[in-house]
Amino acid sequence: MAKLLGAHRDGVPCYNTSGGFLSTPLPEVLENIDAALGKGIGGIKVKVGQPDTAADLERVRAVREHLGDKVALMVDANQQWDRGQARRACRALEQFDLTWIEEPLDAYDAAGHAALAERFDTPIATGEMLTSVAEHWDLIRQGSADFVQPDAGRVGGITPFLRVMNLADHNHLSMAPHFAMEIHLHLAAAYPGPTWVEHFEWLEPLFEERLDLSDGRMLVPDRPGLGLTPSAQAEAWTVQHTTITERAG
Ligand SMILES: [Mg+2]
């Protein structure tokens, strides 16, 4: 599909999120990081936003030390901070050379995100919760995101996603689509500017094929469409959860 969209590249830098949830103890996070990098994934994202920001900083410091300076590191606060907390946290996080700080504020606080993007050197990423092109335009025109994070499933599919992508490109922004790497790999490959794709293995059981990773990038499959076939498991789940009722008369 990427070629039909006018792909600019045959692979997209990818990062792992699933190894760094807040509920995962730090030693396990570090093991997950090694496993992700061993698979060919190029960057690591960990969650922040604990009630005690000092605990977040300790964790990020340990992860940065583990990774060294060369591997891209992102953090994601999932809207957990108010404006004051976010300012303090962003300032403290500047030292870790992060690729971005994601959703430091409420997803609809476009002005708050814009103020952070203006004030700090670390790029701000947001947009995964938004559900329309218009909401994304509000974010983009206010300068709220250095990395725009549309989700094709949430904005209404590939066509509205492409409209968001064009708005981001016209405003010289970077893009990092949210979740569903199976679709977003193709869309990110067609983005002219800097982009990352999120490696999440959660949807893998739905498909027969696996996306190839190499040297920090996820490679665009050259098979037709998305390059994926629904798995027998997916079909079984579909049957299992579908109830067909006959209408009388
Ligand atoms: Mg996120």
The helix/strand series, from N terminus to C terminus, equals EHEHEHEHEHEHHEHEEEH
Shape: globular
Under CATH at level 1, the class stands as Alpha Beta
Counting H and I runs of at least 4 residues, what is the number of helices?
A: 9
Report the mean per-residue pLDDT as an integer. Answer: 95
Overall number of strands: 10
| CATH H-tier superfamily | Enolase-like C-terminal domain
**Second rung of CATH, namely the architecture:** Alpha-Beta Barrel
Tell me what the structure shows.
By secondary structure, this protein is of the alpha/beta class. The protein has a single domain (11-240), classed as Enolase-like C-terminal domain (TIM Barrel). The chain has nine helices and ten strands. Strands 1, 2, 3, 4, 5, 6, 7, 8, 9 and 10 form a ten-stranded mixed β-sheet that branches. α1 (26-38) runs parallel beside α2 and α5 packs parallel to α7. The radius of gyration is 19 Å and the shape is globular. The model has no long low-confidence stretch (mean pLDDT 95). Magnesium ion (MG) is lined by residues 76, 78, 102-103, 128.
Q: Concise description?
A:
This protein is α/β, with parallel strands linked by helices and 249 residues long. It is built from 9 helices and 10 strands.
